[in-house]
Design a protein that fits this description.
seven-stranded antiparallel beta sheet, seven-stranded mixed beta sheet, Dna Ligase, domain 1, 34 strands, Rossmann fold
Length: about 900
């Protein structure tokens, strides 16, 4: 049927600040939905209070409100706009819960607003654990034995009836928040109390655990005519018991029999068709008994989800975009898939394998137990594409940016029982178990991981043994086809990495680039979206590349990789604006990134997208193939910046600030030498490269310890005595063996200020100076701050500007730089400079309503001369306040804020 013409103005509810379990995948879905609706001539009004997102960019919607996600804010928006519909399925659990709250107090009815994409009865059925269980029973779909309860007394009765082990699942929560396992009464009481507190309806489901069963997810779309498309089947590497956000996941499903898959499809379609008025994307989770293949339904989410973003990037099928059109009344057969221009009814077929590997930040919370369970605790994910599971798995690990060059062994493994505990490093211990001779059956029995996956890891181990024995052309090709990096092969064979590169070049073992086309090449892909792989040698020599190189002037922009605490969605914002800015300058744009949650990896953003790890080997091969004018590093956080030295040494042109300027800023010793030369004050410091040098440190405590070349204050610490100094410096020197450690005299009771600038090497423009509310010593990402400053004297602000201009000139900054200062007793001291876009630039851009990164990109590419450029007028009245948001409830530990960043996101508030 044609779209509903009565829908003329839609309110999209966002997901708010980034928290663990609800991250930038909803920025991606909200942004896509807004584009999709506006294509149809629908006016879009959007509410979200996250300043770091593309979703809250003024260009995303007709009107953007950066207000708290509360009913009061909704009323304000409805009174100021003529809105006929609300779309709550793009903003995670936050949006669904807010939509439900507004309905309960009569807001939608009072203002004549229709809910589209889903109805409230559907939300109630799927989020209320008892309602969901009742629906499954009516449909004759098996579920685990369970009892819904609203108090501890009833929960204890339920536990007696069901018997341990048990799962506790709170209603209306996201990311498994509040849930957990219990093996006995002492554990059970704690988990139930936590679950009842977490659920907004004070209801939990006490469920018989099916630990060890295999877990699968299906991503589906349903239209108003009850047509259903299965977009993707995703298999969890880990069995039931680990939240899907914390599990390695694989698409398509690898160990699912066709008979069971068809039954699962039928069940998912039956479930979707019984969800009332529902038109859009949906995620259904199943558990499968590995012995009998019995299927039970675990849950259904009537909205786009984290897995929807992953499935969209994995298949090239834009779920959020099509979901938004379905919400307008279109049916699937009326919508085209933009990748191949086939009907959206056409289900994707993959001729490659996709692996998602979670990224955790447990090191930020050293007292936290890293056992993985029902509560999601990963902060991001690395996605990789390959022609086989092993290739995709190893590429996903290489893309984590944790110093891992592939599937290495965890040498702390001592006995098979070590594998029982699900943890971030279990797969590395599993590999070690294979190496020392444990059978696949023994490993499967203790882990519940399917034997097929264990056998794939055994193949990786076998290839390593062959490489150690002798490196031949055949063995090198086999290794590359199984995802081994050049550095990995170098370490295994004892040859230099350069030798490996020369051998594979000589033998014609080169990367080829294949399309993500949704249809296994049945139709021609219209969108340049690629991954790399290693085909048969003869193919490589004849150049079987599906990526066609143009003769246009082109630039490569390096992304920021998987989210982590200290480097998150703000760098995706920077990359997206960099692409837009470069397009405005008439350059062909090429994006390299491996984060499936982001807008920067959207299929229709850059002229070309390479979904690859942001690692030197992969990036270099793309550069050599595309032959761009140069590479932009300063928009992708520390991920991109840390490649500067290698790219410079290999003769690759770095656009914007050159390597020398980057190195001066990152090398504290060189940086402080520049400050000395210009009489710019800074805290006393000393550089150490060995534990022996600590004896020469003669500053009074407390001292601030920091490694060079890190982001988010990673491993920065304030120490109070000599013993702590020796212990911590020893720890850092063992971790950062090729790095220097800086010891700064810590200045107590100082105010911290940071300035962001755009410079073209000659002229410099301060885009914003922020004053921190918390005293210096709290990481800037964890401190509340505001713009413009209020308590800083004119004299100090003049010094901030003076020192900033000098630093820009000395570093020959071309593009963006962030400089941090501390002020005490009217003395201004410089503490660091970051020669790149920073966490604060999106906040400043939103506060002043000026697209600073687009302007900076014009400067980087030489299209804007600041001396003659007129900046847009700033629109801020009063103050913009940044408030950090923490996800520490996921780690069950008390934290003290300090120089290492702990927050996962931020919100913006405006005050007069």
């Amino acid at each position: 049927m044609p779209r509903n013409k009565q829908i003329k103005s839609v309110l999209i509810i966002g997901s708010g600040p980034i928290i663990i379990g609800q991250a930038c995948e909803f920025d991606y879905s909200g942004t896509q939905a807004s584009k999709s609706l506006r294509e149809e001539g629908v006016k879009v009004i959007l509410i979200n209070d996250n300043p770091a997102t593309i979703m809250t960019d003024p260009s995303t919607a007709d009107r953007v409100y950066m207000l708290p996600l509360t009913p009061d804010s909704i009323v304000k928006i409805l009174e100021e706009n003529d809105i006929d519909s609300v779309l709550p399925t793009m903003g995670g659990q936050t949006a669904l819960n807010l939509c439900k709250d507004c309905d309960e107090i009569g807001i939608w009815g009072k203002y004549g607003v229709n809910i589209i994409g889903v109805d409230l009865s559907t939300i109630e059925i799927t989020e209320n654990r008892d309602e969901f269980r009742g629906l499954m029973k009516r449909l004759n779909i098996s579920v685990s034995e369970s009892i819904a309860v609203s108090n501890l007394e009833d929960a204890i009765d339920a536990s007696i009836d069901l018997g341990f082990p048990l799962v506790v699942r709170p209603s209306f929560t996201l990311g498994g928040f509040g849930g957990g396992f219990a093996n006995d009464f002492s554990e059970f009481e704690t988990v139930v109390k936590r679950g009842l507190d977490a659920s907004p309806t004070n209801q939990v489901l006490v469920e018989k655990a099916v630990l060890g069963w295999k877990e699968y997810e299906l991503e589906l779309l349903r239209d108003s005519n009850d047509n259903v498309t299965i977009v993707c089947a995703i298999e969890n590497f880990d069995p039931m018991g680990v939240h899907t956000g914390d599990s390695i996941t694989v698409a398509p499903a690898m160990t699912l029999s066709d008979k069971t898959f068809q039954k699962m499809r039928d069940l998912a379609i039956l479930m979707m068709r019984n969800l009332g008025k529902f038109a859009g994307g949906c995620n259904v989770q199943f558990a499968v008994n590995p012995d009998s293949e019995e299927i039970i339904a675990v849950e259904i989410n009537p909205r786009v989800s984290r897995s929807s973003a992953l499935a969209s990037k994995a298949t090239g099928y834009p779920i959020a975009k099509i979901s938004a059109k379905l919400a307008l009344g279109y049916t699937l057969d009326e919508i085209k898939n933009p990748i191949v221009q086939t009907s959206a009814m056409f289900e994707p077929t993959l001729d490659y394998v996709v692996v998602k590997f979670p990224k955790w930040n447990f090191e930020k919370f050293p007292k936290s137990d890293d056992t993985l369970g029902l509560q999601m605790r990963s902060v991001g994910e690395s996605m990789a594409v390959g022609r086989c599971f092993n290739e995709a798995l190893q590429k996903s690990i290489q893309g984590l940016e944790e110093g891992k060059i592939g599937l290495s062994s965890d040498l702390t493994f001592s006995e098979l029982s070590d594998l029982k505990k699900p943890s971030p490093n279990r797969i590395f211990k599993l590999k070690r178990a294979v190496e020392v001779g444990y059978s696949s059956e023994e490993i499967q029995k203790i882990t519940g991981i399917d034997i097929w996956f264990i056998e794939q890891i055994k193949d990786i181990v076998d290839i390593e043994f062959k490489l150690k024995d002798k490196l031949t052309k055949k063995r090198l090709l086999e290794a590359k086809q199984n995802g081994f990096s050049d550095e990995q092969i170098s370490k295994i064979t004892g040859l230099s990495e350069l030798d490996i590169v020369h051998k594979r070049t000589k033998w014609g073992i080169n990367r080829v680039f294949k399309s993500i086309d949704t249809c296994s090449a049945e139709f021609e892909a219209k969108t340049p979206y690629f991954y790399s792989t290693f085909e048969n040698t003869s193919y490589c020599l004849t150049g079987q590349n599906e990526s066609k190189v143009s003769n246009k002037k082109k630039v490569i922009i390096l992304g920021s990789g998987p989210n982590r605490i200290g480097q998150g969605i703000e760098f995706d914002y920077a990359c997206v604006h960099g692409v837009i800015g470069a397009k405005d300058c008439d350059w062909e744009t090429i994006m390299i990134n491996n984060n499936p949650e982001t807008v920067s990896t959207d299929f229709n953003l850059a002229d070309k997208l390479y979904f690859e790890p942001v690692c030197l080997e992969n990036v270099l091969d793309i550069i050599r193939y595309e032959n761009p004018e140069g590479v932009i590093l300063q928009l992708g956080g520390q991920t991109a910046l840390k490649l500067a030295g290698d790219l410079h040494n290999l003769g690759i042109k770095i656009l914007g600030t050159d390597f020398n300027g980057i190195d001066i800023a990152e090398d504290r010793d060189r940086f402080y030498t520049i400050l000395d030369k210009n009489d710019i004050p800074y805290p006393e410091y000393q550089v150490i490269k060995s534990i022996e040098q600590i004896s020469n440190v003669n500053f009074e405590f407390p001292l601030l310890i920091r490694p060079s070349y890190v982001i988010g204050g990673q491993r920065m610490k304030i120490v109070e005595n000599k013993g702590d100094l020796l212990n911590y410096c020893g720890e850092l020197l063992s971790i950062y063996q090729d790095n220097t450690i800086i010891i700064d005299k810590f200045i107590s009771d100082a105010v911290e200020v940071e300035a962001d600038l755009i410079s073209d090497g000659k002229s410099h423009y301060i885009i914003g100076i922020m004053e921190h509310i918390d005293k210096a010593g709290i990481h800037s990402g964890d401190s509340s701050a505001y713009l413009p400053t209020k308590n800083i004297s004119t004299k100090c602000l003049e010094l901030v500007e003076k020192y900033s201009n000098i630093i820009c000139e000395e570093l020959n900054i071309k593009g963006l730089i962030n400089i941090q200062f501390i002020i005490k007793d009217e003395n201004v001291l410089v503490i660091e400079a970051n020669p790149r876009s920073s966490r604060t630039v999106p906040f400043i851009s939103k506060a002043y309503n000026v697209p600073y990164i687009k302007i900076a990109t014009g400067v980087i590419l030489g299209h804007i001369d600041l001396e003659n450029f007129k900046f847009p007028k700033r629109e801020l009245k009063g103050f913009a306040i940044k408030r950090p948001i923490f996800s520490t409830h996921k780690f069950n530990v008390e934290i003290e804020l300090g120089p290492e960043m702990k927050s996962t996101g931020e919100c913006i508030r405006f005050e007069d």
